[in-house]
Every structure is written in structure tokens, then in C-alpha cells.
Amino acid sequence: MRTHIVLKYTGMALVLNALFMFFSLILALVFSENTVVAFLYSTIITICLGILPSIYVKKTDYLNIHEGVMIVVMGWLSTCITGTIPYVLWGGDFHFINALFESVSGYTTTGASILSDIESLPKSLLFWRSSTHFIGGIGVILFGLLVLPESGSRLKLFNTEMSQLAKTNFATRAKETIKILLYVYLGLNILEIGSLYIAGMSLFDAVNHSFATIATGGFSTKNASIAYFNSVSIEVIIMLFMVLSGIHFGLIFHTFSRSKNNIFTSATVRAFLLFMAAGIILSTLKLYYSGTYDNFWTALRYASFQVISLGTTTGFANADSSVWPAFNIMILIYFTIQCAMVGSTSGGLKFDRIWLFIKTIVKQIKQMQHPRAVLNIKIDGKPVTEDIEHHTLVFLSLYMMILLVTTLLLTFLNVDTLTSFSGAAAALGNVGPGFNDVGSMSNYGMIPDAGKIILSVTMLLGRLEIFGILSLFFVRSWK
Questions:
Q1: Which domain holds residue 413?
Q2: Has residue 353 been placed in a domain?
Q3: Number of folded domains in the chain?
Q4: Is residue 304 part of a domain?
Q5: Could you tell me if residue 419 is inside a domain?
Q6: Which of 48, 50, 177, 363 could form a disulfide with 15 if both were Cys (CB 3.0 to 4.6 A apart)?
Q7: Separation CA 284–CA 308 (nearest Å)
Q8: What is the dihedral of CA 383, 386, 391, 396, to 10 degrees?
């Protein structure tokens, strides 16, 4: 592996990071805020760190898979670390551990926060928080645009950010794929900004919440999240874009281009929507008949938003779900673990793996009944190889192991069980809010510093498909 090549592309990622810091600096100047110095120094430091290796390292015509994985992982780590600089220089609640947690949460599109009074932050800092979502959500595309022009059009997308299942659903040349995903990502952002503005949000709030929605992040400019606006129209718009952002972007593009392989013909998409619909119905009925809400439509409103929000790993809230009945909390915890679809901006486990796991169970039952039969699993009409089946089962096992270990470590730090488990699930799934002390109307400020470090690592594991981070521990085996 050529270290200088890795440094070159990592430097490019830092230059892009510095660009968004510069945008925040402009906002600070426009609003005459006390963050001007923080963003000025942040921009200078980050661009200097990024531009040196970008200038002095020569171009290359080929990148091997090991270099690709290292570039993606080091790119994420470097942006997360430099992303702490504006927070630390501004001060307030942002000592380094808190700043690191907020930065990692933003870039991994988790949306968990240590802040108790978000509305007290300067607008430029709020925009920076949302920008980390925008950068994180488009991470695979940004890196691809930098790497692919010099690596050949046949280089596959890195496994750390797009699983084999995503590739089976949307097979095309890598460079073309990246352009398509970029168009969809930017197009959805523009559409939601316009829709939210028309629905009554200020332009500033519309931009910030759109960045958070399309990236399936969850950072809001308000302490009460979406509940602050108390608007059904705003909630419906956000629900629509949360669902779209949780679906494979390639299928969205195919839908608008009138291709046969689209959202409406995909069995996986139908299953994903069916699971969410079932969760909404069950949650609504329990909220209504338990007396949590006297009106059925009110129960439907809040149940729909919360299930879709957690089921797409966005993490917005229009109600405090921590005070809901245990049945509703368990449903929401399931969706926190399930996560959205591969090929979307979400991280975590991914619904496609759950769907394949269910199909694998059915296959094994049929195999027991008919030992000599040759049975194959198909996803959207395409056969799934045994390698993908095996990889999925290993991933599921590893995912649950990390979830349990993270929960155990948090309980060791004297965090209660529900807070520990839901917080670990929300971090690993890049969802954001958990329950109890880290619920949708609370924050992670009460978690001990050691716990924040543990959760930061967990968020990165969820975002980089686990194997990307773990592969760093086996660099010597790369040949």
C-alpha cells in the first residue's frame, strides 16, 4: 500500500471540509457573530493540512482495493477530527470530548448531540453542524468523485460504504453510478428546501433541516426538534423525504428515468415500506387504546413520524417517545436496529440484510423438508450468491456482538440499562436519539466522557460498515 497516495486523497477530503468551514465563516461575518475567529482559524488550519499532500504527491492511474479502503476510512477519521476545531475554538459546552462526539455524530449522520440548548448557538455554528450531515451523507459520492477520475472507470465502489446488496440492485459503471447518486442527493435537497420554505419554515431552517433529512442525520436548529414547529404540513413533507432518503438512490433515479427497475417494481422496497406501515399501525393502535392520545388521528400523526424517523435512521422527533408505553418503545427500538436500505445515505445494519436473513431462514426450513432440492434466494429477481449470504450472516452476528459489548461498557460506567442499550443501538445504527436519558427530547450530555468516546467509535463502526474500521487492525495482511 502506498501511504503517500492515501495522504493525497485524505488531503483532498480535508480541502472539501475547509470549503464548508469557509461557508460558515461567511455566515458568521454576515450575522456579525462571535464565531468569526473560530471559523477563520478552522478554515486555515484544515486547508493547510489538506492542501500540502494534495499538491506534492503525484497523480496515479490506479488504486488497489486496500488503498481505496484506507482512503475512505482515513478520510472519515480526518474530517471528524478537523471538524472538532470550530466547536473547540468557539468554546461553550464544547471541550474536546464533547466536540469530538458532536463532530463524529454529524459526519456519520447520527444526529446525537450533547447540547441542552441548541437555540443558543450562533447561526453559523448551527449551519456548520448541519453541514457535517451534508458532507457525511454524501461521503461515498464525494470520495468517489475525487478517486475515480484517476483510478479508471471500472473501479468498484468501496465496500466500506456500499454493500454487495446495493451493487446487485443497481449494476452500472462506478463513475456513472456516482454521478447519478450525486444528482439524486442534490436534487432531493433542493426539493425539500423549497417545500419546507413554502410550508412556513424560514430559509435558514429549511436549509438546515433539509441537510439533516436527506443525509438521514437528525440535527435540528431547535431544542424540541420538529415538534417546535407544530405543523402537520411540515411533518408530512419531512416524512416524505425521510422515506425517499431511506431508499436506494439508484432506484430513485431509475424511477424518475422511467426504468423498469424502480421503486414501484422493487420487492425489497415494498417489504421495507410494509414493515414501516406495520410499525405505524401497531404503534398508533397502542397509543390510542392506551389513552396516551385521546384522538386517533393525533396518535397516527405522532406514531407515523416517529416510526419513519427511526426506521430511516434520521432521528427527528415531533413528540417525546420516551414517555410512551413500553410496547411502542420496543417497536421503535426494533426500527432503530433495523435501519434503512443499502444504497441510501443511512448507516447501520440496513433493512436489506434483515430481508435477506428472513429469506435465508425460509430457505433453510425448505432445505430441511427437501434435502436434495437446489434452492436459491433472489432479491428483486436476481439470485444472491452464497458468498453474500455468508457475508450477511457474519455481518449480522458481528453487529449484534458490537451492540451488546457497547451496552455492557456503558452499563459499566453506571449508565442505566435502557439508556445504555438504546444509546448503543442508536449510535451503531446512526439513528441519534435513544430512550430514557438519551431520548428524543433529551441529549447525550449526561453520558460520561469515556462513554462518549465509546459511542463515537460505535458511530464510526456503523457508518463504515464495521469491516472498514476493523480492516485497519489487519494492515499487515494486506498484500
A1: 384-477
A2: no
A3: 1
A4: no
A5: yes
A6: 50
A7: 13
A8: 80
Backbone torsions φ then ψ of 377, nearest 5 degrees: -95, 135
What letter represents residue 271's amino acid? A
Tens digits of per-residue pLDDT, 4-57?
778 888 888 899 899 999 999 999 999 999 999 999 999 999 999 998 877 766
Q: Count other C-beta atoms under 10 Å from residue 427's C-beta.
A: 36
Residues 304 and 5: their CA atoms lie apart, in Å, by 47
Length of the chain: 479
Flag whether 264 is in a domain: no
Instruction: DSSP for 322-361, please give it.
Output: GGS-HHHHHHHHHHHHH---TTSS--SS-HHHHHHHHHHH
CA-angle at 240, arms to 237 and 245, nearest 5°: 120
- Angle subtended at Cα 129 by Cα 304 and Cα 74, rounded to the nearest 5 degrees: 105
- What are the grid coordinates assigned to 439, written together? 431520548
Strand partners, 377: 384
**284-330 residue pLDDT tens:** 999 999 999 999 999 999 999 999 999 999 999 999 999 999 999 99
CA dihedral defined by 4, 6, 11, 14, rounded to 10 degrees?
-160
Distance CA 56, CA 113 (A): 38
Pull the grid cell for residue 8.
493525497
| pTM exceeds 0.85, yes or no | yes
Closest CA to 15 of 67, 63, 55: 55
**Residue 378: its H or E element:** strand 377-379
Distance CA 266, CA 360 (A): 19
Question: Which contacts (CB < 8 Å, 24+ apart) does range 165-168 have?
Answer: 165/342, 165/350, 165/352, 165/353, 165/356, 165/379, 165/384, 165/388, 165/392, 166/248, 166/250, 166/342, 166/343, 166/352, 168/379, 168/380, 168/382, 168/384, 168/388
C-alpha cell at 69: 479502503
- Cα separation, 132 vs 29, in Å, equals 20
Nearest Cα residue to 305 out of 463, 433, 185? 433
